[in-house]
Each structure stands twice: as structure tokens, then as C-alpha cells.
Amino acid sequence: MSSEDNRKFDIKAFAIGLREDIDQNRVKLPTLPTISLEALLVVNDADSSMADVAKIISKDTAMAARLVRYANSPLYQGVSTVSSVKGAITRIGFDAVKHAILSLAMRDVFTTAFKSIRERMETLWKHSVSVAAKSAVLAGHFHHLNSDEAMLAGLIHDVGVIPILLKAKNHEVLLEKESYLDKVIDLLHMSTGKFMLSHWNFDPVMIEVAGNCDRLDRELKGSEVDYVDIVQVANILSYKGSHRQYDKLVLENVPAAKRIGLEFIRQMQEEMERNEEEMALSAMLH
Fold first, then answer.
1. pLDDT tens sequence across 35-78
2. Could you read off the pLDDT of 88-121 as tens digits, one per residue?
3. What count of Cα atoms within 13 Å lies in the side-chain half-sphere of residue 44?
4. CB atoms within 10 A of CB 5
5. CB 229 within 8 A of CB 260
6. Rounded to 5 degrees, what angle do the CA atoms 177, 114, 18 make?
7. pTM above 0.85?
């Protein structure tokens, strides 16, 4: 692309084009691994047993290894080390396996064969893991929330960035000028994320997270903390000290932080900085 083409690049036109691609199903969306879809079908079958799920997951060595590491992570500390898929499912709990499978499958979604956007994609994944770890810790202190679900919410909150990056690879100016690409992502990633998760038949709770993760002015009628609140605060905390988005944001000005509790967040932030849960979670998801 010439310098003249760069000057003529229209961010608004790019955004409109992506929206039209989405509306017309022309966006080549990343897909969940086949083994994960098979396992989810079994999990959702009321007549399925733990052995049925274990049999499906065991077909994929990488997925099986991730599930075992997941069961041995700080989220599920046990007296002994789990060494089998069936043992991992037993420790996690049958009801929580669905969230575990989706979380483990997300690693394969955040990959690309295109060298031009590979670094961006890897950075996006590392950020998502950080948000997921913090979300799990925060949600663990609210009886009506689930740490596994919060972790999944953290992993998928920025999933809408992926098709934007895939489309951007065809526009040299976006790859050369990160500020342009950042503007496009800011404009479109939430609506794109909602579309992707709807396409994958994710739970409405997760779709709401993707569609509201950066709407920090979001107000609720009630005062009960939800997963959007958890992910928004975890997202802000993940940027602290990065000199990037939200690094200097004052939590006192964020409605989600007020609902969760400012003093509680400070305590949790200290806890997150002291332990190695994020590192363990990162290793488990790779």
C-alpha cells in the first residue's frame, strides 16, 4: 500500500465494511475445536455420564492434558495430584466441566497462521488469561457467582478483536499504524464479540460480557454484582502499570468497582500480586 493509499484510508469505511461482512455472514470466524464441540454435546445430554465425557476428551491428547492441568490448578487444590481425565472431571465436578471445556478450547481460537498479526493475537491471549485469572479470584468471594464461569467470561471478553485482526491483515496501514487499528478495535470489538458468541451458541451471560466489557458507564437497576462487573474490574486491574488503556483510570469513578466494593478490590489486588495463580492458570491453558 502506498503512502497515498495510507492517507486515504477510511476507518469509518472499514468499520462499515466489517459490520456488513458480519450481517452477511462473510466474516470467516475462528471455530471451536471439533473435540470441544463433541464434548459439549455429550455434557449437554441429560443421559450422559462422566465416563462418556472422559471418553470424548481422551481422544485429544492436548485437550486431555489441559483438563488435567486445570484440575491441578490453584482453583481446584486437592490433597493428591490428579493424573487422569476421569479424575480431573471428578475433581472439577460434572456441572463445571462445560465451562472448563470452553475455557480450554479458547486457546485454539486465539491463534493465527498469519505472521503479520500473530504478535497481536498472542498479546491478546495473554491479556485475556490475565483478566480470566483476576475474574476467577474476584468472583470466588461472591456466593451467587461461579469462579469457573468468571474465568470463561474473562477469556472471552475481547474475543471480538479476533475477526477485526483477521480483516486488518489485508490493510497494510492498519498493521503499520497501531493507533488506526486500536481505533477500529475500540469501535467494533464489543458488537463483533456479541455476534461471535451468539454464532457459537454461548450462554446469554457470556454474550452480555462481550457486549459490555468496556462500557464502564454501564448502570444497573439493582446493586447485585454480575459477571460484567467482575470482568470490567479485572480488565482494569490487568492494565495497571502497563502504560496502556485504563492504566491511570481511577476505580472510584467506575460504577462496577463501586458495586464490587473499592476496599475489597484493593485487598484482592494485593492478594493477586502475592500469589502465583495467574502464572499457574497461564501454564494450564497453554
1. 788 888 888 788 888 888 899 999 888 888 888 988 887 777 67
2. 999 988 878 888 888 888 888 888 888 888 999 9
3. 12
4. 11
5. yes
6. 60
7. no
HEC-encoded secondary structure of the chain:
CCHHHHHHCCHHHHHHHHHHHHHCCCCCCCCCCHHHHHHHHHHCCCCCCHHHHHHHHCCCHHHHHHHHHHHCCHHHCCCCCCCCHHHHHHHHCHHHHHHHHHHHHHHHHCCCCCHHHHHHHHHHHHHHHHHHHHHHHHHCCCCCCCHHHHHHHHHHCCCCHHHHHHHHCCCHHHHHCHHHHHHHHHHHHHHHHHHHHHHCCCCHHHHHHHHHCCCCCCCCCCCCCCHHHHHHHHHHHHCCCCCCCCCCCCHHHCHHHHHHCHHHHHHHHHHHHHCCHHHHHHHHHC
| Selection from 249, 213, 189 nearest residue 131 by Cα | 213
CA angle 142–68–136, rounded 5-degree value: 20
Find out whether 234 and 135 touch, Cβ atoms under 8 Å: yes
Torsion sign (Cα): 13, 19, 23, 26: positive
C-alpha closest to that of 103 among 76, 143, 140, 63? 63
